[in-house]
């Protein structure tokens, strides 16, 4: 994975010094909260319902075991012994003190980490495929391109006061494991008919109040124009994105209102101009970054056999492991969704254990997924059983990847001052109700958001739940048929909302209907797409 | 008019009236103009040789349209004074400078020591910018 | 009653206006009445509180109950981690 050179290190160190100075000036009263807020947000520091919350960046979801260990140590040293992995591949700490925040950033900088631009109206963490570099179906590893974009977007002087936040995802396979079309810019690296490698640009996707799937804006951007074209996309947004209404300020609204053809035309004009300005890094820079993502030193001739005699192990392999491009190796997902647990949370001890397992069994590398789980990307099959025993002993061996127990949930009203309802208790109840039924329900992506900001990505859930405030009481809307991936679709609301217990019953009704109507190997999503909303509405409300 | 607090030019500061953007075209002898966030800086392109001063207003420091306006003007060859006015705060100064501004007239005067620290803060930049900084990729590859 | 709540600037801890200072314990909150906004402004300007705002609540037998579930959770702690609550007797039902 990428290693900082002297320049990268100087940038994060300078940022720490800058934030230390800004914090001191705020505490001394030289700055108002209104002046300080955008600055602390661009260092990942929120003021939440109970305390300051710090969101640390995990660039494109990749981290080393040393970095993971630091995240565990930070949880102990500065927080209350745990962290929360998020739907954008980051980690959050909920009990931070302002006067310690600069020290946390300094500790992070020691292991080449930061909280730069993880919040605020700027370009956020670039996300990517959690199986990058390990999956057989990728054209190339997308992460060098994500790293190029990370550097381009960091402290970009023109784009630090955008109309609103800006999220970019980069993938390099037709199987979209990063919900690419639901980002402000989604990039797929492809090979064109002439055999050249370049980027497809989708612009104007997003969730929140008005979810939209990003339309295709440009079919092919050559690699040596990636930064220039991205800059053109951002400049048009910075100049013409709406600033009159916070809820209409994302680029998806601009693209929707002026139309994708007009947006594309304006970008082409700006792009043609910017090509004369020499802002593109030389191809040598990409060539410098790529080797950091070279294959690890796989053991040649590693055995492709797995001893499946332990049925619990076999179940975990079938559910949580994915084929690796290299024979003898496998991709393992560590579930952070124990039955009845808090989705995405991990204790400091668990985080450090995962760091050690990454060091011992995955060439020192781990990934955070946008489904709030952890991936060990390069595990030798010969080591898999030992790994699983360690995970299972630590409560990290739940075999529920992509099943109903693998719930994606935002922190909700238990933690977040933006929320209208709690999400975690609903997740816990659903997890417990369906614990024995994961096998029969198969692939079922259930996502819960505690408010319309949709940090739980509920629009993309096969089953989605949105918490709302109904006259001071928590209420939950159910939606069906959302999907990320190449066949991205947005969930449809079933009808009136439910109480907290009611929503769990509602989920049971729709899953029962699925089982009664399922044909062949259909997943819940397939049955829904085939039979439509009407039967589900009837089951729920009649 | 608020006082220019920081200036990175050797020539004399322009004096005289600053035309509003809407009226600028009609005033064929105006050498100074003020841009608001919604104004299109490219409209000024035919007049860049004549212009000695372009003021860019930031009614709120959270509105970054002025940064695009400034960069566009510099990219299109404007070499006159480019002044940031309005809600200019210390912490924006590095980004404003790299966007091409060479003078600053904050509505509320800034602490001079804090401002000096801010201007000198960043030894490097990842991106090419309007003041010809050598981006890190250039330092890496020449 | 009108309750003023905010955060301590440095520690981030949630605080409640007690009439002569700021407490971490909601049951010490007083009814600031018509003075609530003025108190908020004065205390914010003096940097004794950050991000303060006014809410409704009721006083019930020695306890203070904020009117909205959000502030009841704010007072109690995350209902899913009441081991972290200031109140050792906390239960999730208390926020309903």
Question: Would you give an account of this structure?
Answer:
The complex is a heterotrimer of chains A (542), B (142) and C (96). In chain A, 36% of the residues lie in helices and 18% in strands. Chain A has helices at residues 6-27, 33-41, 65-78, 101-110, 143-153, 226-240, 251-258, 260-274, 283-289, 311-320, 348-361, 381-393, 424-433, 438-441, 500-517, 524-531, 534-541, and strands at 45-47, 52-56, 62-64, 82-85, 91-96, 127-128, 168-171, 185-191, 197-203, 216-222, 321-323, 329-334, 345-347, 365-368, 374-380, 408-409, 446-449, 463-470, 473-480, 492-493. In chain A, the strands form four sheets. A five-stranded antiparallel β-sheet of chain A has the order 1-2-5-4-13. A five-stranded antiparallel β-sheet of chain A has the order 3-14-15-12-11. In chain A, a hairpin with a 5-residue loop joins β4 and β5 (91-96). In chain A, α15 (500-517) crosses α16 (524-531). The radius of gyration of chain A is 23 Å and the shape is globular. The termini of chain A are far apart. The mean pLDDT of chain A is 97. A six-stranded mixed β-sheet of chain B has the order 1-6-5-4-3-2. In chain B, β4 (53-58), α2 (65-75) and β5 form a beta-alpha-beta unit. Chain B has helices at 21-24, 65-75, 93-98, 112-120, 136-141; strands spanning 6-7, 19-20, 32-35, 53-58, 81-86, 103-106. With 142 residues, chain B is an alpha/beta fold. The longest helix of chain B is centred in the middle third of the chain and has 11 residues, at 65-75. By secondary structure, chain C is α+β, with helices and mostly antiparallel strands. In chain C, a hairpin with a 2-residue loop joins β4 and β5. In chain C, strands 3-2-1-4-5 form a five-stranded antiparallel β-sheet, with helices on both faces. Chain C has helices at 36-45, 69-76; strands at residues 2-7, 14-17, 22-23, 50-60, 63-66. Chain C is 19% helix and 28% strand. The longest helix of chain C is centred in the middle third of the chain and has 10 residues, at 36-45. Chains in contact: A-B, A-C. Chain A binds chain B through residues 5, 7-8, 10-11, 14, 17-18, 21-22, 25, 30, 35, 38-39, 121, 151-152, 154-162, 235, 238-239, 243, 273-274, 276-279, 281-282, 284-285, 288, and chain B through 37, 61-65, 67-68, 71, 75, 89, 91-92, 94-99, 111, 114, 117, 121-129, 135-137, 139-141.
């Amino acid at each position: 994975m990428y290693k900082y050179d002297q320049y990268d290190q100087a940038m994060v160190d300078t940022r720490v010094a800058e934030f230390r100075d800004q914090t001191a000036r705020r505490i001394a009263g030289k700055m108002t909260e209104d002046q300080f807020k955008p600055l602390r947000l661009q260092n990942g520091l929120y003021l939440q319902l109970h305390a300051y919350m710090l969101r640390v960046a995990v660039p494109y979801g990749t981290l080393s075991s040393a970095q993971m260990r630091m995240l565990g140590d930070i949880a102990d040293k500065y927080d209350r012994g745990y962290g929360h992995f998020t739907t954008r591949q980051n980690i959050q700490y909920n009990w931070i003190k302002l006067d310690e925040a600069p020290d946390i950033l300094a500790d992070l900088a020691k292991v080449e980490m930061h909280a730069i631009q993880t919040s605020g109206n700027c370009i956020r963490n670039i996300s990517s495929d959690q199986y990058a570099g390990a999956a057989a179906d990728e054209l190339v590893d997308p992460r060098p391109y994500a790293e190029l974009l990370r550097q381009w977007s960091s402290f970009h002087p023109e784009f630090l006061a955008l109309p609103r936040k800006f999220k970019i995802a980069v993938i390099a396979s037709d199987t979209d494991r990063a919900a690419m079309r639901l980002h402000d810019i989604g990039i797929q690296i492809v090979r064109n008919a002439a055999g050249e490698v370049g980027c497809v640009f989708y612009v104007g996707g997003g969730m929140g109040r008005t979810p939209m799937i990003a339309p295709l804006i440009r079919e092919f951007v050559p690699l040596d124009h990636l930064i220039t074209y991205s800059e053109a996309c951002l400049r048009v947004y910075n100049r013409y994105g709406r600033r009159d209404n916070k809820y209409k300020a994302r680029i998806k609204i601009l693209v929707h209102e002026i139309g994708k053809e007009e947006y594309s035309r304006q970008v082409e004009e700006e792009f043609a101009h910017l090509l004369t300005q020499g802002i593109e890094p030389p191809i040598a820079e990409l060539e410098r970054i790529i080797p950091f993502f070279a294959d690890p030193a796989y053991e040649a001739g590693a055995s492709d056999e797995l001893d499946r005699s332990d049925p619990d192990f076999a179940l975990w392999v079938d559910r949580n492991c994915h084929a690796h491009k290299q024979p003898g190796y496998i991709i393992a997902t560590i579930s952070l969704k124990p039955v009845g647990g808090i989705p995405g949370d991990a204790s400091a001890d668990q985080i450090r254990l995962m760091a050690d397992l990454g060091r011992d069994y995955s060439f020192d590398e781990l990934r955070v997924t946008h489904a709030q789980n952890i991936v060990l990307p390069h595990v030798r099959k010969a080591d898999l059983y030992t790994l699983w025993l360690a995970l299972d002993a630590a409560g990290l061996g739940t075999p529920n990847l992509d099943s109903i127990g693998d719930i994606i949930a935002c922190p909700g009203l238990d933690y977040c001052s933006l929320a209208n309802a709690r999400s975690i208790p609903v997740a816990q109840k659903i997890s417990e109700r369906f614990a024995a039924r994961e096998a029969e329900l198969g692939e079922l992506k259930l996502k819960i958001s505690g408010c319309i900001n949709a940090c739980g990505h509920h629009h993309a859930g096969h089953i989605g739940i949105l918490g709302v405030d109904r006259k001071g009481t928590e209420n939950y809307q159910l939606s069906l048929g959302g999907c990320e991936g190449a066949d991205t679709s947005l969930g449809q609301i079933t009808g009136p909302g439910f109480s907290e217990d009611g929503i769990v019953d509602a989920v049971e009704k729709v899953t029962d209907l699925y089982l009664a109507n399922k044909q062949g190997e259909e997943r819940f999503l397939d049955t829904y797409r085939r039979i439509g909303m009407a039967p589900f509405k009837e089951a729920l409300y009649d | 008019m608020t006082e220019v607090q920081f200036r990175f030019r050797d020539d004399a500061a322009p004096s005289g009236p600053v035309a509003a953007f809407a009226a600028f075209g009609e005033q064929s002898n105006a050498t100074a103009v003020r841009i608001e966030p919604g104004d299109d800086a490219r409209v000024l392109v035919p007049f860049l040789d004549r212009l000695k001063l372009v003021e860019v207003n930031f009614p709120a420091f959270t509105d970054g349209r002025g940064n695009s306006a400034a960069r566009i003007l510099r990219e299109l060859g404007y070499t006159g004074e480019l002044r940031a006015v309005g809600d200019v705060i210390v912490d924006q100064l590095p980004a404003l400078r790299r966007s091409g501004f060479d003078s600053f007239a904050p509505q509320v005067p800034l602490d001079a020591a804090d401002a000096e620290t801010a201007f000198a803060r960043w030894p490097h930049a990842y991106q090419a910018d309007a003041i010809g900084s050598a981006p890190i990729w250039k330092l890496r590859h020449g | 009653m009108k309750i003023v709540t905010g955060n301590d600037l440095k520690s981030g801890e949630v605080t409640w206006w007690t009439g002569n200072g700021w407490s971490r314990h909601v049951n010490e909150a007083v009814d600031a009445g018509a003075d609530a906004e003025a108190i908020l402004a004065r205390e914010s300007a003096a940097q004794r509180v950050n991000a303060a705002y006014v809410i409704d609540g009721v006083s019930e037998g020695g306890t203070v109950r904020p009117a909205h579930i959000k502030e009841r959770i704010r007072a109690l702690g995350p209902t899913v981690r009441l081991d972290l609550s200031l109140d050792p007797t906390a239960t999730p039902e208390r926020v309903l």
